[in-house]
Amino acid sequence: MPSPFPGMDPYLEHPALWPGLHSRLIVGLADELGPALRPRYYVEVEERVYLLAPAGSFPFSARPDVLIVAAPWSRPSAGPVPAPTGSARVVELPVPEEVRERYLVVREAGTHRVITWLEVLSPANKAPGEGRLAYLKKREEVLRAQVHRVEIDLLRAGEPIPVVGDGRDGHYRILVSRWEQRPRALLYVFTVRDPIPVFRLPLQAGD
After folding, report:
1. Would you state the pLDDT for residue 68?
2. Predicted local confidence at residue 66, as pLDDT
3. pLDDT in tens, 50-69
4. Which residues pair with 148 in a beta bridge?
5. Which range has the worst mean pLDDT, 100-109, 122-131, 182-191?
6. What pLDDT shows up at residue 168?
7. Are 156 and 10 in contact (CB under 8 A)?
8. 3-state percent helix, strand, coil for the chain, nearest multiple of 5
């Protein structure tokens, strides 16, 4: 059955669906953009990795795009937890997750110089903690460089990435920042009732 929504389908934000959607969206964008940008540019899918503390109240779980676990029969049996003695009690340790986030870079053919950096936000980018800090740190580095930046936020939950006049009147945001126009940028704000806006991907002058 076709989606009743003209743009972003909010049911795709479900924690069980979003990680796979994010990976497919990044790869799909790379496949779509690559042929359109050749021969002057090429598109790469790149990745950053960090450890994320166990989530608190944020409704999404952050997890790698692909998770491989050992079959139950191959794991050594830890056996039952020994009964505590004296004043000891049984507790659980918060084990951090390794998170892998994919993003796109458009590079100039020949020089391999990064021209445009494109991110599709993940839940961890919008929740307090290491994921947001890592994202904002890399964002600051890119905004200082002569690199265009595009941020696509298709998640209603969490804290929006900060800008002055950040479009909190909508559900979703697309930020398009040309380096030579900073600190000004274009912000597209839309809701579940709107089609996803069409925007120009910033490249070198004349393209």
Report:
1. 40
2. 39
3. 776 665 444 444 443 433 44
4. 116
5. 122-131
6. 78
7. yes
8. 25, 25, 55
Query: Which are the contacts of 93, defined by CB distance < 8 A and separation ≥ 6?
Result: none
Contact 161, 153 (CB under 8 A): yes
pTM: 0.79
- Gap between the Cα atoms of 133 and 51, Å rounded: 11
What's the confidence (pLDDT) of residue 65? 40
CB-side neighbour CA atoms (13 Å) of 123:
24
At residue 185, φ and ψ (nearest 5 deg) are: -150, 165
Supply the pLDDT for residue 42: 96
Q: Are 172 and 156 in contact (CB under 8 A)?
A: yes
Give the DSSP letter of residue 113.
Answer: -
**Domains defined for the chain, CATH in brackets:** 17-70+93-190 (3.90.1570)
Report yes or no: 176 and 188 within 8 Å, Cβ to Cβ: yes
What is the spatial order of strands in the sheet that 148-153 belongs to? Answer: 41-52, 97-108, 114-120, 148-153, 172-177, 186-190
Query: CA triplet 62, 11, 133: central angle to 5 degrees?
Result: 30
